[in-house]
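A student in our group prepared the protein record below, which I am reviewing. I have pasted the whole thing underneath without changing anything:
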Amino acid sequence: MSDAAGRRPVHEAPDADLVEYLVIVVPDLGSLDRLVPALGELVEASAIRIIDLVCVTRSAHGGGLTVLELEDVESLSGLRDVEGQVGGLLSAHDIATASLAVGPGSSAVVLLIEGRWAARLSAAARLAGGRIVGGERIARRRVEAALAPDASSRGTDR
């Protein structure tokens, strides 16, 4: 059985403590096809589950934003049968906010995923009377600065 969009259904609700969004920017919509094998492998390995996915493209002239559903992006056709996509959870505000990272003339895929790799940790936290309450990706420039050869002489930046 599939949902109205023809995607395979999610058989269980995602662990709300493990849901996050990712924005992957590429030069154009056609370049998204290079993401399909990696995303498929992550889903197949149960590392993630895709909960929602939209593509955005920003005009090189004027910066207008176009939002496209998975079915409308040929370069992502290999993801149409991936287990777990339900769609409709990303709001217009969510998409607009995520799209701030997309520069003129670029495209991106905005993914809402369940980080299933951490399911055991989430369950253990609940058993201990707690839960996972947050996390954040560290900006690339900060990681690179911390890993730079002269970073060890500067001390910590906390």
About this structure: Strands lie at 19-26, 49-58, 65-69, 107-114. The longest strand covers residues 49-58. The longest helix spans residues 36-44. The radius of gyration is 18 Å.
